[in-house]
Amino acid sequence: MNLMQGIDHQEASTLNSSLLGNAGIFATDPAGDSMISVSTETFVELHASRKFGGQQRSVVIQRVDVTDDLIATAKVVASNDEVHYTYYLGLVKVNGEWMVQTFLQRSRPKHRGKNYFPFLDGRNV
């Protein structure tokens, strides 16, 4: 999936070609206890500037439901030794290409009690 490649390789062009300009992007905050929303532009910039993304992860598309070859939903799971990500994506077909319209991400450390997010000032998650 191009979107996951764009995240993991921090490629702005790949992210821009995968996301609609007005996509709704929601992810867990760094503490993991609430959701935050960012614009598509901010999401792409955070990855292109290497503040987010850049991890080596295994990615599995667990489920895809397509209606009339126009709209779809997908559940994608990505993980590495430290973090587990669950994504729910809402997709629409625009000019023959699937684009992400809604992006929901839940991330959490694989091992509770160990701080895998150094910007949390030493708090355990």
What are its keywords?
single chain; globular; 46% strand; 6 strands; six-stranded mixed β-sheet; alpha+beta; Nuclear Transport Factor 2, Chain: A; 125 residues
Average pLDDT rating: 87
Radius of gyration: 15 Å
Structural class: alpha+beta
Question: Which H/E pattern describes the elements?
Answer: HHEEHEEEE
CATH topology: Nuclear Transport Factor 2, Chain: A
Q: Assign the CATH class.
A: Alpha Beta
Which second-level CATH architecture applies? Roll
Spatial sequence of strands, sheet with the most strands? 2-1-6-5-4-3
Strand fraction equals over 45%
Total domain count: 1
Major sheet: 6 strands, mixed
Cα(first) to Cα(last) distance is 29 Å
The rough form would be described as globular
Using DSSP, what is the number of strands? 6
Q: Spans with pLDDT under 50 lasting ≥5 residues? A: 114-125
In short:
The chain has helices at 2-9, 12-18, 40-48, and strands at 19-28, 35-38, 58-67, 71-79, 83-94, 97-109. The protein is α+β, with helices and mostly antiparallel strands and 125 residues long.
Describe the structure.
The protein has 125 residues and is an alpha+beta fold. The protein has one domain (2-109): Nuclear Transport Factor 2, Chain: A (Roll), CATH 3.10.450.50. The protein is 19% helix and 46% strand. The chain contains 3 helices and 6 strands. A 6-stranded mixed beta sheet has the order 2-1-6-5-4-3. Strand 3 (58-67) and strand 4 form a beta hairpin. The two termini are 29 Å apart. 14% of the residues are buried.
